[in-house]
Design goal:
Largest sheet of chain B: 3 strands, antiparallel
Number of helices of chain B: 4
Strand order of the largest sheet of chain A: 1-2-3
Radius of gyration of chain A: 34 Å
Strand order of the largest sheet of chain B: 1-3-2
Strand content of chain A: under 5%
Structural class of chain B: alpha+beta
Number of strands of chain B: 3
Structural class of chain A: mainly alpha
Radius of gyration of chain B: 17 Å
Strand content of chain B: 15-25%
Distance between the termini of chain B: 32 Å
Shape of chain B: globular
Number of helices of chain A: 13
Order of helices and strands of chain B: HEHHEEH
Number of strands of chain A: 3
Oligomer: heterodimer
Shape of chain A: elongated
Distance between the termini of chain A: 66 Å
Largest interface: A-B, 17 and 16 residues
Helix content of chain B: 55-70%
Helix content of chain A: over 70%
Chain lengths: 328, 112
């Protein structure tokens, strides 16, 4: 019976202190009755292997004990879906972009890699790990506290169907947002048209600014893209729903715009600067610095552009998937 | 996992779920006569309701804590055993549950 005693001891370990002896006495009686029955059936005393078979069928000690414990959860079914949405949003909109940004900088910036050789590269990710840990810990803690507070009861008992948010249509475009887009695009275009594609020298704040020969391309491209954007926004005001054609047009416009921006940042657009109070050497230093830093910032433009394009592509995929589902 | 196994597992899960729902009723009904745990298990098994000890004893405790069962430790065949029987409240609940069970049974018969 040593095997049974060991089994009961293992079960006892996991049981609540005030019920341990009672539960174990009952379980022991059941096991001994089973063994008695089996011995009568077989006509001999059970070997350790045979007893082990009976115990194996009962299940692992921790699982047996668990059934006697009250069913409790850190975050219950009423709050868990909200907890999951919060964690998912934190990951998707904060931690994942942060990680992708780090990855982008690591891949595309040789200076960053040079500044963080070997293990220092992983160490540069330490704030991200800390943010992950803190986000998970404090969210879980907050929801565990909510689970045990009156807030949960309030949430479960006081909801009304009429207070629920209106049905969400992912293909609907806010007219307000479209009007805002048109306003901003027209304002930018108005300012942009103050410049001139046929002259590369501008006079601003007492300075003469000379742009490179690629200036006219940017000038006309930006005008074309602004007009395209305004046209699309006007279409959205008239018919505030995404169609596949409009979604593809948005993708095309965004793709061209962000490529253009990236090219603009890397093109050393500023050719020279001159002014009464500016020595030629200082002007040259200014031009080099401005071109250097805009070129270095191009990676950020590229990364932001990629994020925007991901959203655009996601929209098209969603529409294609919905169309497939709708087709009988 | 092969599709056959998957289907078998799915059936087994649903079967257990179905039986789990009717266990309290079976236990209460069987305890119209006094039993200790092991004989209760054997009685249920003889009627086609196999139940393992890990399920039965926690269920007995839960029913007792709800006041539907009463229990006492007694010596029988030189061994201490805990005997269970229905409490007056348990008898009343069992009556109501049996009415409910018959209603479910009739509804299912209608549907099937």
């Amino acid at each position: 019976m040593a095997l049974i005693d060991r089994y009961l001891q293992a079960v006892k370990f996991w049981l609540p202190r005030d019920k341990k002896d009672d539960i174990i006495a009952e379980l022991a009686e059941d096991l001994r009755s089973q063994i008695d029955d089996k011995e009568s059936e077989l006509g001999h005393k059970l070997s350790d292997d045979e007893v082990e078979l009976i115990l194996k069928r009962c299940g692992p000690p921790v699982a047996v004990a668990e059934r006697y414990l009250p069913q409790r959860s850190l975050i219950g079914p009423a709050l868990f879906p909200i907890y999951r949405v919060v964690i998912r949003a934190l990951f998707l909109y904060f931690l994942l972009p942060w990680f992708l940004l780090w990855l982008g900088i690591t891949i595309f910036s040789p200076d960053f890699r040079a500044d963080h050789p070997g293990a220092a590269l992983l160490a540069s990710l330490e704030p991200w790990w800390l943010a992950c840990t803190y986000a998970l810990f404090f969210n879980t803690l907050a929801f565990a506290i909510l689970e045990r507070s009156q807030a949960r009861e309030h949430l479960v008992r006081t909801w009304t169907a009429s207070a629920l948010p209106p049905e969400r249509d992912p293909n609907r475009i806010s007219r307000g947002a479209s009007v805002f887009e048109v306003t901003i695009a027209v304002a930018i275009l108005a300012v942009w048209l103050q410049f001139d594609a046929f002259h590369r020298v501008f006079h601003l704040f007492g300075l003469s600014i000379t742009l490179s020969s690629s200036w006219p391309y940017f000038f006309w491209a930006l005008i074309a893209l602004s007009l395209g954007g305004i046209a699309l926004s006007c279409m959205n005001v008239a018919n505030p729903h995404w169609t596949r054609a409009k979604a593809c047009l948005r993708l095309g416009l965004d793709c061209t715009s962000w490529m253009l921006m990236y090219w603009l940042f890397r093109s050393n657009l500023l050719q020279s600067l001159s002014g009464n109070d500016l020595s030629p050497n200082r002007a040259l230093n200014f031009v080099s610095s401005i071109n250097f830093w805009t070129a270095r910032s191009a990676i950020w433009v590229l990364l932001i552009g990629i994020v925007v394009l991901i959203f655009d592509v996601r929209r098209i995929i969603r529409m294609a998937t919905n169309a497939t589902r709708a087709t009988p | 996992m092969s599709p056959g196994n998957e289907s078998g597992d799915r059936f087994e899960n649903l079967r257990q779920e179905l039986r789990r729902g009717s266990l309290p009723l079976a236990v209460l009904a069987a305890l119209r006569t006094e039993h200790y745990g092991y004989t209760l298990r054997k009685t249920l098994a003889n009627h086609g309701m196999e139940i393992d000890e890990g399920t039965l004893y926690p269920l007995l405790r839960r029913l007792e804590s709800h006041g539907l069962l009463v229990s006492e430790w007694r010596e029988e065949e030189k061994r201490n055993k805990r005997f269970y029987r229905l409490s007056p409240e348990g008898k009343s609940i069992l009556k109501q549950l049996l009415v409910e069970w018959k209603s479910i049974h009739e509804s299912l018969e209608d549907i099937l």
